């Protein structure tokens, strides 16, 4: 599912809000019926928990807490450390260089979907938080993301746990996140070591995003437009079950066609690849809209094994 820090800070048409909420209702019903024992949460970060002072392509949290950005969940997540440790060893033994964190910070990109699914409580279920770098170059080839997901799925395929694989990210979008190559010196310092900002700095940063969204919806913001054609083609791959087709996505093409934050679909690739490693699957529900007020191609899907 997509996320957006603007869900509570923007004013799309009422019909759009109702359609998004109906999609969330579908996801809630799916998760309620499935009643997972554990959630494997593949999520991005937006320079709230991970910075260029040390930027891994993947990181699994042995413990984690929310940063509270955009008034999101700021407490401790319920992370089963013993399972996380065993899973990390399983993954690295099979050739993926996985970082781990015993004090991971996760932002709205990871906790908002849990809040949506569990009535505001991101700690409602045991969760394994997987950070997938989706903003900071260099990016690993998409095939590595797919392999990570497949190994996670392989790990759980032989257990008797009911596991929900959750991937969270917008599709095409290019919000006002500075790029290191073109950033000012002060921006580069933030991108490198900006954790634990002052309340004033965080409020100003968030206000800039909210104002950009307002101007974008009005056709006034100088940021890349959404790309519904690209979004629908990506969803076609998700629906097909041919997860190897994700490999054709390259970082340069994604930047050019769908915006610098389209890399958040890497979380979707990991989640769908994990599910596919457990067997063939069927997408049961799909919602998509390009929503300028959220600066995102916005989608929600549910899928289960056949």
Describe this structure in words.
Its cofactor is Fe(2+). Its EC number is 1.13.11.16. The chain is 40% helix and 17% strand. The chain is α/β, with parallel strands linked by helices. The protein has one domain: LigB-like (Protocatechuate 4,5-dioxygenase, Chain B, 3-Layer(aba) Sandwich), CATH 3.40.830.10. The strands form three sheets. Strands 4-2-6-1-7 form a five-stranded mixed beta sheet, with helices on both faces. Strands 3-5 form a two-stranded parallel ribbon. The relative contact order is 0.21. The mean pLDDT is 97.
Find the count of extended strands (DSSP E, 2+ residues). 9
Count of domains: 1
The CATH class is Alpha Beta
Strand order of the largest sheet: 4-2-6-1-7
- The proportion of residues in beta strands is 15-25%
What structural class results from the helix and strand content? Answer: alpha/beta
Helix content: 25-40%
Largest sheet: 5 strands, mixed
Order of helices and strands: HEEEHEEHEHEHHHHHEE
Distance between the termini: 21 Å
Would you identify the regions where 5 or more consecutive residues have pLDDT less than 50?
Answer: none
Record keyword descriptors for this entry:
two-stranded parallel ribbon, Protocatechuate 4,5-dioxygenase, Chain B, alpha/beta, globular, 40% helix, 3-carboxyethylcatechol 2,3-dioxygenase activity, 306 residues, 9 strands
């Amino acid at each position: 599912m997509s996320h957006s820090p603007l869900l509570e800070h923007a004013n799309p048409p009422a019909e759009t809000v109702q359609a998004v909420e109906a999609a969330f209702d579908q996801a809630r019903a799916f998760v309620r019926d499935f009643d997972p024992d554990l959630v494997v949460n593949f999520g991005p970060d937006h320079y709230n928990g991970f910075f260029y002072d040390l930027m891994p392509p993947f990181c699994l949290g042995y413990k984690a807490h929310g940063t509270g950005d955009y008034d999101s969940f700021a407490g401790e997540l319920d992370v089963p450390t013993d399972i996380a440790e065993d899973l990390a060893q399983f993954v690295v033994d099979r050739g993926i260089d996985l970082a781990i964190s015993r004090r991971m910070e996760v932002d709205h990109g990871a906790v908002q979907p849990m809040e949506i699914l569990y009535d505001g409580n991101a700690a409602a279920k045991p969760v394994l938080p997987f950070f997938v770098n989706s903003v900071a170059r260099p990016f690993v080839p998409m095939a590595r993301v797919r392999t990570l997901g497949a190994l996670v799925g392989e790990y759980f395929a032989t257990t008797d746990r009911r596991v929900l694989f959750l991937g969270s990210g917008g599709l095409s979008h290019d919000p006002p996140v500075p790029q290191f190559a073109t950033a000012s010196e002060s921006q580069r310092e933030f991108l490198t070591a900006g954790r634990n900002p002052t309340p004033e700095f965080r409020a100003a940063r968030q206000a800039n995003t909210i104002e950009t969204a307002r101007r974008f919806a009005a056709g006034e913001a100088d940021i890349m437009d959404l790309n519904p054609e690209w979004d629908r083609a990506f969803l076609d791959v998700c629906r097909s079950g041919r997860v190897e087709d994700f490999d054709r996505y390259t970082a340069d093409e994604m930047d050019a066609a769908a915006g610098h934050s389209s890399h958040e679909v890497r979380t979707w690739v990991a989640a769908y690849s994990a599910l596919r490693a457990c067997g063939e699957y069927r997408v049961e529900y799909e919602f998509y809209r390009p929503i300028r007020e959220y600066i995102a191609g916005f989608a929600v899907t549910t899928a289960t094994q056949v």
